[in-house]
């Protein structure tokens, strides 16, 4: 894969990382946050298309939780839903 290109955990679309949402399990405190690109957050991350359809699949099949190896709160899904395209 090319440098700075990522794959959506739902639809498997490959694109530049700026085209995706980045959900991060921050190291070392294990807090789940949404990286909006304003600061660098280090830790395990999952990339997701910014669409309502990919978000629904991710929530239904717990794709974000499986990728981050953590339990995802409903609050994270609500934050993503508020900024979703569609």
UniProtKB/TrEMBL annotation:
Q: Which residues form the YlxR domain?
A: 6-81
What's this protein's name?
A: Putative nucleic-acid-binding protein implicated in transcription termination
Membrane-traversing stretches: none
Which organism's genome codes for this protein?
Chamaesiphon minutus (strain ATCC 27169 / PCC 6605)
Taxonomic lineage of the native organism: Bacteria, Bacillati, Cyanobacteriota, Cyanophyceae, Gomontiellales
InterPro entries per the UniProt record, alphabetical: YlxR, YlxR-like_sf, YlxR_dom
Q: Which domain of life is it from?
A: Bacteria
């Amino acid at each position: 894969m090319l440098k700075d290109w990522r794959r959506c955990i739902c639809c498997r679309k490959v694109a530049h990382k700026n085209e995706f949402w980045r959900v991060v399990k921050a190291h070392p405190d294990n807090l789940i946050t949404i990286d909006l690109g304003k600061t660098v957050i280090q830790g395990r991350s999952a990339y997701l298309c910014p669409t309502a359809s990919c978000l629904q699949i991710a929530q239904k099949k717990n794709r974000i939780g499986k990728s981050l190896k953590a339990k995802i709160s409903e609050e994270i899904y609500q934050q993503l839903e508020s900024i979703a395209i569609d």
